[in-house]
Specification:
Layout (H helix, E strand, L loop, with lengths): L1 H14 L10 E6 L9 H16 L3 E6 L6 H12 L4 E4 L5 H10 L4 E5 L8 E6 L1 H15 L5 E5 L4 H17 L6 E5 L6 H13 L4 E5 L5 H9 L2 E6 L10 E7 L2 H12 L7 E4 L6 E4 L7 H16 L9 E2 L5 E3 L7 H5 L8 E2 L5
Parallel strand pairs: 1-2, 1-3, 3-4, 4-5, 5-11, 6-7, 6-8, 7-15, 8-9, 9-10
Antiparallel strand pairs: 10-12, 13-14
Length: 358
């Protein structure tokens, strides 16, 4: 009986998401949660999609739908794409996970690839970028650039991925500037709220922050406001130079293209598995971008040297000793967090003035 089950599973994997005929293109549905702007999550999802399309050419046929939020509308779009013969479904929002997983279970011949999720199944894969690696480097830039020692962060939600990016950023800043004041944080509790992004940025600047970190911005609002106020700004996901031509400090540039190419190639090769991909600097999935000309040559060199250490595996941002902001040791001296601990992070490092909701 066990051998029979193994044979059936293998047969399903061999046929998973394969076009009806060998010459038919692989039909891919791609769901982007918000409108595609100039920087940020939705822009980078779409940029990765463009890289994938250029790489595969007529081997794939892509139907992309943007501005698909979480909830019933997303479910209807997913279901429609599958009914239209989609072989592979990319889901771009954390909130698409449960409905996407249910759809995968209902359609064993469908490959579903979800951004940032934490559940996997035979035909349900997840992926994430090690943004925290780039955040450490951007934090070094912030530590070098601040004049008053006061950093401010406009952050989306207190999710583990966001906490990892925030913590790594502050650890990077502290590594080059141990005299920093406690970092101020404003939580948006939203992925997309331009008015609140602007108000939060103005508030942090009014309280003395002279470097702002836009952590998972849904819009360009934080970046544009910092540029307008003459304050340095760092952003997750994108090179922000076009929006802040004089005050961009560094961009934590995500590159989803290599991840998409590897996953789609595995489907074409019949080797696809419903597992997690966690890609970083060594994979070409993230890098520090557009370091400000206001940084000195030595400062830039130090940041780029640290990037090469991360690429080579000789340095990991979450290497102890690390203390949280309650005074408890969370990483012992000489130890490093594994991927599971990074992906489930639930602490704030010492030097960040915020608390987590109960």
């Amino acid at each position: 009986m066990k051998n029979l089950l193994k044979s059936v599973t293998a047969a399903l994997l061999i046929g998973l998401s394969t076009p009806a005929l060998a010459d038919d293109p692989l039909k891919i549905g791609f769901i982007i949660p918000n409108a595609i702007g100039q920087i940020g999550w939705d822009y980078e999802l779409n940029r990765g999609l463009d890289v994938m399309k250029e790489h595969f050419g007529d081997k794939i046929e892509v139907t992309a739908v943007d501005s698909v939020g979480e909830g019933p509308d997303a479910t209807r779009v997913m279901t429609r794409l599958v009914a239209q013969g989609t072989n592979v479904l990319f889901l771009g929002s954390f909130g698409h996970m449960n409905d996407g997983l249910a759809l995968a279970k209902q359609n064993p011949g469908l490959a579903v690839i979800h951004a940032g999720g934490y559940m996997n199944d035979t035909n349900f894969a997840t992926y994430a970028v090690r943004h925290y690696e780039g955040a450490y480097l951007a934090g070094m830039a912030a530590g070098y650039a601040t004049k008053d020692g006061q950093l401010g962060i406009v952050a989306a939600f207190p999710l583990p991925e966001v906490l990892g990016i925030m913590n790594s950023y502050v650890l990077g800043a502290q590594s080059v500037n141990p005299g920093l004041k406690d970092v101020k944080v404003i939580w948006l509790n939203s992925w997309y709220d331009p008015a609140r992004e602007r108000a939060s940025t103005e508030s942090l600047i009014a309280e003395g922050s002279d470097v702002i970190f836009s952590l998972f911005p849904g819009t360009t609002s934080t970046v544009a406001t910092a540029e307008e106020k003459g304050v340095y700004v760092v952003a997750t996901l994108s090179d922000i130079t076009p929006v802040a031509p004089t005050k961009h400090l560094a961009g934590i540039q995500a590159n989803f293209g290599p991840i998409y190419i590897n996953l789609v190639q595995s489907i074409l090769d019949h080797t696809f598995e419903g597992k997690d991909t966690f890609a970083g600097i060594k994979d070409g999935a993230v890098e520090i971008a557009s370091l400000s000309p206001d940084l000195t040559a030595d400062q830039k060199a130090a940041i780029l040297a640290k990037q090469e250490e991360i690429r080579a595996g000789s340095f990991a941002p979450f290497t102890g000793p690390i203390t949280d902001n309650t005074g408890a040791e969370v990483v012992a001296a000489g130890a490093s967090l594994d991927d599971g601990a990074i992906k489930s992070m639930a602490f704030i490092v010492k030097g960040i003035d915020t608390t987590l909701p109960n």
